[in-house]
Every structure is written in C-alpha cells, then in structure tokens.
Amino acid sequence: MYNVVFVLGPPGSGKGTICSKIQQNLGYVHLSAGDLLRAERERAGSQFGALIENHIKNGSIVPVEITCSLLENAMIASKDANGFLIDGFPRNEDNLEGWKKQMGGKVNEQFVLFLSCPVDVCIDRCLHRGQGRTDDNVESLKKRVETYNQQTFPIIELFEKVGMVREVNSERPVTEVYDDVVKVFATANQK
Ligand SMILES: Nc1ncnc2c1ncn2[C@@H]1O[C@H](COP(=O)(O)OP(=O)(O)O)[C@@H](O)[C@H]1O
Ligand SMILES: Nc1ccn([C@H]2C[C@H](O)[C@@H](COP(=O)(O)OP(=O)(O)O)O2)c(=O)n1
Ligand SMILES: [Mg+2]
Fold first, then answer.
1. Counting C-beta atoms within 10 Å of the first and last residue's C-beta, which end of the chain has fewer, N or C?
2. What is the residue with the minimal CA distance to atom 19 of ligand 2?
3. Ligand 1 contacts CB of residue 175 (under 6 A)
C-alpha cells in the first residue's frame, strides 16, 4: 500500500513550493500532476501533446485516464518511498472517480493538505512565477480560477465532509506555512 497525501489549493497557493520542501525533509516523493502532464506534452512520440496543451491553456482538466496513469507510473518508479505527495490532483469529479477506479485498494490516503490563499494573491504570484508557463497569463488564469471554484473546491468540500482535510493558510511567508504543514504531517504520522 502506498501512503498518499493529496495537496490542493488554488493555482499559485504554493503547492509546488511546499511539496518540494516536504520531499527534501520528510522523505515523501513529490508528484505534481501538472508537471507530469507538461513532461508528457514535451515527450517525443506522445499522442497526447496537443490535447494536454489545449487543456492547460484553457485551464480545463485533462481526462483522468491520462493523468492517473502518469501518476501511477511515477509511483511504481519510486515504490520504496515513505509516501507520495500528489500535488494538484484530484481536481474534479472525473479525476476523483478515475483515481478510485484505478487506485482503489492500492493506496492509503492519509489526508488532504489544503493550502488556502485569496485568489488575488494567487493570481499575482502566478504572474510573477517566472517559469515561462503558457498558462501564467491573465486570460488563462481567469479560466483556471473559474475551474478551481467550480470543480476543484467542491472536491475539497467532499473530503472535508469525511474529515480528511487539513487546512493551512498559505497567504503567509513560506517558512510560516511550512512550519504548520510539518505539524500536520507529524500528527498524521504518530497515529
Ligand atoms: N507563501 C508564499 N509566499 C509568497 N510567495 C510564494 C509562497 N509560496 C509560493 N510562492 C511563490 O508563488 C509562486 C507560485 O507557487 P507554486 O508553489 O508554484 O504554487 P502552485 O503549485 O500552488 O501553483 C511561485 O513563484 C512561488 O515562489
Ligand atoms: N489533475 C490535473 C492537474 C493539472 N492539470 C492541468 C490543468 C491545469 O490548469 C494545469 C496546470 O496545473 P498545475 O498543478 O501545474 O498548476 P498550479 O500549480 O496549480 O498553478 O495542468 C490537469 O488537467 N489535471
Ligand atoms: Mg504547481
């Protein structure tokens, strides 16, 4: 059984930043669904490149069969890890249902780390992220925020109902956010 922590929050809330620090310090392996999709988009011979780029630009969500397979392959490649940080997934109902179908019975879902941050702060961070992403522009960001509000937040609410959500306010400086995140992991892992 793989230990899994889902990391969710609006675009720019700091998911990637916090996951890379947890990976360095706590031995979890960071798997960003967005990074895996971008790598697949660039892979020579991929049949999904154009489809992925269309979704990324439009801020819509790639069909789960593609994303979940990329995640499972990456998990298999690091099967000795303490656990996995699944960053930016599940982002809608299709993601959640497809994950259950493909991964149900193979994973121990520990909790959902919800990085909460006001949307205007998040958008400003993305516009200054400096990674040259094709979706860090005002037009794509509007759509990504809409997708987050309409599709992703309801998934967080579903997890909240079953007591799985650990919310950390990520509007604060990274060190403060990270200190609180470490406490969440410590509590979860002492059980
Ligand atoms: N707590 C924070 N305070 C200020 N800037 C942050 C914070 N966390 C992340 N950032 C910056 O905001 C941008 C988006 O962060 P990132 O980790 O890529 O977010 P996400 O993966 O949720 O989109 C990056 O440029 C990052 O350096
Ligand atoms: N589960 C996912 C995650 C990301 N995507 C696509 C659509 C998203 O807008 C982009 C970028 O996602 P990514 O997690 O890298 O973006 P942020 O880190 O939240 O800014 O990738 C997806 O289709 N399905
Ligand atoms: Mg990210």
1. C
2. 11
3. no
